Amino acid sequence: MPEANNEIVVDDPQAPADDSPALAGDRKVEIVTSLLLLAFAALMAFDNWRIGMGWAPDGPRAGYFPFYLSVILGAASLYGLVACLVRRAREDKTFVTRDQFRRVLQVFVPTCLFCLATQWLGIYVASLLLVAGFMRFVGRIAWWKSLLTSCVFTLAMFITFDVAFDVIMPKGPLEALFGH
Description:
The chain is mainly α. Helix content is 64%, strand content 7%. 12% of the residues are buried.
């Protein structure tokens, strides 16, 4: 008698297609990442050298530890860059497909907009919009459920931070109307 297959397979209709074209290979992404980290390390090393990375009579100067951390980051970036360049190009695998990148952007773009909206609307209204938007457009959840959940979440956040713990959060015009 053959063994029963107990695996549960759930097909996600929103999952990236297996035949989605590749946007970038591992090798290109590793090279660009290593170069960006190397540039960041160089900038940090220069800035910490500029403000003082030596030892003062009363202990290390402000740039002492950050300078050496940037040197370590730069060395690690150089190692990664050289290792990637030495590796053969034929070993290059797909880093991200078009469908996968689209799904990443579905999270990245609204999150960036949330950060901008927080400056003008305050954190509570921006959070309400972010949660409702994610639930509706990414999760495909009904509007009423999305709005109800985001309102409850935002109210719980307000009670927790502003009322219970008295934490200063970025406020917008709506909170000003209610005197907060």
